[in-house]
Amino acid sequence: MTGDQFLFLILAALSTVSSLLVIFQRNIVRSAMALVATLFLVAVLFLTLDAPMVGFLQILVYAGAIMVLFLFVIMLLNSALLEQRQNFWWGFGSLTALLLVIEILFLVSKSFELDGRSPSLSGSFGSPELLAQTLFTDFVLPFEIASLLLLVAIIGAVVLAKRGA
Amino acid sequence: MDQPIQTDYLRWIVLLPLLGAATNGLLGAQLQKRFGKGLISTIAIAPVLGSFLLSVRALFDLVALQPEQRFLIDRLYTWITTGSLNVDVAFWIDPLSAVMILVVTGIGGLIHIYSIGYMHDDNSYWRFFTFLNLFTFAMLLLVTGDNLLLVFVGWEGVGLCSYALIGFWYQDHVNTTAGNKAFIVNRVGDFGFILGIFLIFWTLDHQGHGTVSFREIQKFASLLKNQEIWGGGVATLATLFLFVGATGKSAQIPLYVWLPDAMQGPTPVSALIHAATMVTAGVYMIARLHFLYSMAPLTLEVVAVIGVATALFAATIALTQNDIKRVLAYSTISQLGYMFLGAGVAAYGAAIFHLMTHAFFKACLFLGSGSVIHAMGGEQDMGKMGGLRSAMPYTFWTFAISVLAIAGTPLTGGFFSKDEILWQAFSSAHGSPLLWSLGVVGAGLTAFYMFRQLFLVFFGNSRADHHTQEHLHESPKVMTVPLVILAIGSIAAGWIGLPEVFGGSQFAEWLEPVFGKPHEMAASEGPELLLMICSVAVAAVGFFIAYLMYYRGALAPERFSSLAGGALYRLFYNKYYVDEIYQAIFVRGTLLLARTGAWIDQHIIDFIVDGSAKTTAYISWFNGLFDNYVIDGIVNALANITFWAGGKFRKVQTGNINSYLYVILGAVVLAIIVRLRYSS
Amino acid sequence: METNLTPLLPAAEVTLTALTVLLLDLFLREEEKGFLAWISVTGLALAAGMAFFLWGSQEGAFRNTLLLDDFALFFTEIFLGTALLTILSSIHYLRETNIRSGEYYALILFSTTGMILMAAANDLILFFLGLETMSVGVYILTGMWRERVEASEAAMKYFLIGAFATGFLLYGIALIFGATGSTNLTRISFFLSLSFHQWPLLVIAGVYLVFIGLAFKIGAFPFHFWVPDVYEGAPTPITGFMSVAVKAAAFAGWARIFVHQFSVVEHEWGVPLHALAILTMTVGNLLAIAQSSVKRMLAYSSIAHAGYLLIGVVAGKEPGGSALLFYLLAYAPMTLGAFAVLLALKDGEKDNESYDDFAGVGLKRPFLGMAMSIFMLSLAGFPPLSGFTGKFYLFRSAIVSGYTDLAIIGALNSLLSVIYYLRVIVKMYMEQGGVEAQPFAKAPCLYVAIVIAVLGTVGLGLLPARALSLSGVSYLSLR
After folding, report:
1. Which of A93, A103, A106 sits opposite B662 (nearest CB)?
2. Is the predicted ipTM greater than 0.85, yes or no?
3. How confident is the model at residue C201 (pLDDT cuts 50, 70, 90)?
C-alpha cells in the first residue's frame, strides 16, 4: 500500500463518518457543522486525486458560501431540534441505501475486473488550465446553460418566497 | 377487372349525407328557430335522395358493363402511407356494394321521410336529422370503402351514431344506459375486427404484400394458406376475429344484448339502424371477405352454428315478450341469425338476398309499430292494444303484409329468401340436415310470434283506456306513404330471386361476379320442392296456433306458459337472464377491478406505512388481544379489531413521499440484484 | 475557431423572449400585463418559423454536444406549439387567479428552452441540464397559485420526487462516463458497438439508472404514483403543458438515447421496458375508470398514453421511432384541447373539474361539447381522428417488429378506455345540472386554442400522410 492509498483511505473513512453524522445528528446546528467537515474532507480528497481546482471550488463555494447561508437560515428559524423519525422507515431506508452501496461497490470492482483498464490520466489532469480548457471548449454550451438553469431557479425562489402581490 | 373504371361521382354518394349532417349540425339550431322544421328536413332529406339517385346511376353504369367488369372506383386521396402500407380513401362499387347502397339510401331515404311526421313534435328535430344523416354517411362509407381500414371507420361511425340516437331522448336515464351499452358492446366487437385486420395485414406483410385493400387481399389471399399462428391457421383466426366484430355489430350470440335495449331510441331509428342497415354490416363484411371465409371451413362452421343458434334463441325469447318493439327487436336478431346461417354454409348470395328482403319488411314492421305507438300516445305494451284494424287501415294492411313476408308465406319476399337459405343449409357442401331442421323450427316460431303480434295489436277488442281510444287516429300521409312503398317492396323484392325450381334467381346472377357461381345446381328440384313444402307447413302450424290462441281464443296461452311449472316461460320471458349474468361478471367485474386498483394506488403508501411501520404497535395490539381474550373474552377483542381497522384506513396524506421513495429505492436495489443473478 | 451558432437559434430566440417578458413585467401596470402573453406568443411563433426554415439541415455545434437535425426540429415544433397553446389558454386563467403573469409566461418559455435543448442534445450533460431547466421551471409553475394548498403540496411532491429521479439519471450518466470516458452520445454508442457483448457492468448499471430516471419523467409504472397528485394540484394549463410537452421531451430522450444510440444494448433494456409498457397502459386505463374528477381522469389517461408511447420505444428502429414521433404529435392537440375545455368550465375561484360539472355542457355550449367529444373520442382511438391514426401506426410498428402481444394489449386497452372517455360525453349531452361554461366573449383566446386543437385533432386524423412522412424523416435524421 502506497502512501497515497493510505491517505485516501483515511480521508474516505473520515468523510464517510462525518457525513453519517450529518444524518444522524438530531441537533440541526451540529448537523450543519458536520456537513462543513464533510465538505472540507471531500475537498482534500479532490486535492489528493489530482483535481486541485475542484477541491478549491468545493471549499470556496460549498463550505464557504452555501454553508454560511445554511447556518443563517437555521439560526433565523431557530428550530434546533429535528423531530422524531419514524423508526421503521429510518431502518428501511438505511438498509436499502447500504445495499445499494454494496451493489455499486460490487459493480465497480467487477467492472474493472472484466476489462482490466481504468481510464488513464494525463499529467495535467485536473489542473485549472485543463479544466478551463475543457469547460470552454467541449462543454461551453452546458456551461452557459447552467447559468440559465440558475436564473430559472432564482426566479422560482423569488416567486415562491415573495409575499402576495 | 384489373383496370377498374375510374369515376368521380361515387364520392358524392357518400359525402352528400355528410354535407347534410354538417349543415344541420352546425347551423341547425338557428335554422330551426328562424325558418322552422321544414327547412331542416329538406336539408336532411335532399342529400339522401341525391345519394339514392346517384346509386341508381351507379347501378345502371354497372349493368351497362360486362358482368366480369362490373366494377367502379373513385379514389380521393392517399390516407395513410408508411413503408409497406398504403391506404387510400377510395370508394368502390361492385354488384355487392351496389345492392347495399341501394338498400341504405332507398330504405334509409323512406325512413328519413317518415321521420318528418314521427318527430314532428320534438324540439331537437335538427339534432335528430343531423345524426340520421351522419349515420347514413357512416353506413355508406362502410359499404363502399375499398379497404378494411376505411370500412372500419364506417364501422365505428355507425356505432357512434347509433349510440347518439339510442340515447336521443336523454332525459330518460334508461335511454342513456342503453346507448352506453350499445356503444361498449360494439366496441368489444370492434376489438375483434381490428385484430382481424392486423392479423391479415401482418401475415401479408411478412410475405411482402402488406395491404388492407379488398382487391389486393383477394389477389394475395392464397398467401394466407398454410400460414400458422398461435396453433391455428391464419385464415381461420383472422376470419374468426372479424366474425367477433360481426357478432357485435349484427347482434349475434354472445354480443346481441345491446339490440333489444337499443329500442329505447325513437322508432325511425330502430327501423333504420336496428333493422335495415347497421345490423347488416356484419353480414356484408362476411360477404365482402367471402374468399377468406371460404378458405376457413372451421370459421364457416362457427358462423353457421352461431347463426342458427341465435335464430332459435332469439325466436324463443320473442314468443313471450309483450312490448311491441321488443318482439320486433328479437325477431331482427333471429332473422340476422338466418343471414349468418346462409353465410356460414357459404351461400353468401342467399344471405345478402335475405338481408335485402328483410330490410324491406322489417323497416315496414318497425315503422308500422311506430305508427301504432304514435296513435296510442306512446304506449308500447301489446296487452293494452287490440282492435286497431279499423282505426288505422293503412298501418294495418302494410303491417299485415310484412308479417306475411317475415313469416315466410309463399310468394312474399321473405318466403323466397328464407327458403333459399334453408335450402342451401340443407344442400350446400357446408350444410347439413340438422342445420336445416333447426332453421325450420325457427321459421315456425317466427310465424307464431309474428301472428301473435298481429292479432294482439290489430284484432279483437281494444284493451286501451278510454282516453287513448278516443284519440286513435291514422298517421299522416308522410308516414303512411313510406309504409305502403315498403309493403310493396316486401312482396316484390322476393321476385328477383326466384328459386331454381321456378326459373332461377336473377339476384344470384347479379352477384355472380362477386361470389362466383353458386354451388352445383344438380338435378335437385324434387328435394327442393319437398323441403319448401315442409317449411311452409311448419310455418302454417305456427300461424294456426297463434290463430287459435289469440284470434279465436280457443287455446289458452297459459296451457303453454305453465309447461314445466312455468320455468321455461320464465326463462324465455327473462331472456335467459343473460343481461343479469353479463352485468354481474363483466360490468361489476371491471368496476371492481378498477376501484380496487385505484384504492391500492392511493393507499399503497399509507398501507405500507401502517402495515409495517407500526409493527411494534401491531405486536403490542396482539398482546392486548391476548390479554383481552383471556380476561375479557371475544367481545372486547372484536371491538378492538374494529378500532384498529378504523385507524388503519385513516388517510395519511403528508409524509408519505419519504416512504414512497424508500420503496422505489428498495425496488431498484432488488432489480439490480435480480439483474446480476440473471446475467451471471 | 469558427463557432456554428445556427443550431442554437430556436432555443436562443425563446430564451430572449423569456428575458424580454421578465424585464417588461417590471415596467407594465397590472392591467397592461396581458401584453406579455402576446410577446410570448410572438416569440414562440418566431422560433417556430426559424425551426421551419432550418428544416432539413444536419449539422452539429459546440463539438457535437448540440445537433441540428430534423429530429430536434420536429420536437422543437411540438414544444413550441404546446407552449403557444398553453399560453393562449392561460390568459383567462391568470385573470381569475392570483398568479403573477410575468414570471408565469417567462417560466413557461424557460422550460420550453430546456425541452428544445433536451431534444437537440447529443451529450448527456447537456441533456441533463436541459432536463433540469425544464423541470425546475415546471416545479415552480406547479406551485405558483400559492393560495391553493393543493398546489403547494403538489409542487413540493413534484420537486422531491423529481430531484430523486434526477439523482438516478445523474448517477447513471456518471457511471457511463466512468466506463466509457465520455458523455457524448455518439462516442458512447461507438464504445458500445466496439466492445460487442463485452460491456463492463458499469455501463449496464449506468444504462439502467438512466432508464429509471427517464421512466420517472414519463410517469411509467411503477414510478407513476406522483402523476395524479401533481397533475391534480397544478394549475390546469400547466397540467396540460406537463402532460404534453414534458412528456414529449422525456420521450425525445427515450428516442434519441435509447431507441437510437443505445440500440446495441437493447436486449438489456428492451425486456423490462416491454413489461413496463404493458403495465403502464393497463394500470393507467384501469385506474382512470374509477376517478370522479375529470382532471384526475386525464392524469391517469396521460399515464396510459405513456404506456402506448412506450410501445413505439420497444418496437424500436424506424417503424417504432417514427410511430412514436407521430403519436406524440397527434397526442398534443387532443390532450391540450381537453385541458382547454376543462379550463372553460372554470368559474372564478372554483375549478369545476368533476364529471358532474360537465353535465349539460354540450347543450348549453354546443361548440365546447362538440370539441370535447372530439378530444375524448380521439383519445379513445376512434377513427378517423388523430388518436386513431396514431394508435394505428403504433400498433402496426409493434406488429412489424414482432411484438404482436403489445399490439393486442394496446388495442384491448383502448377498448377499455372508452368506458371513461364516454362518460364525459354522456355527462355533457345526456345529463343536466352542471356548471355554466365561459362564453366566447369572456375567454376568446381559450376558444382560439380549442379551435386550433380541434383542427389539429381532426386534421391529423383525416390527412396524416404528410405528418407521418415528416416523422419518418425526422427519426431517420438521427445520426
Report:
1. A93
2. yes
3. confident
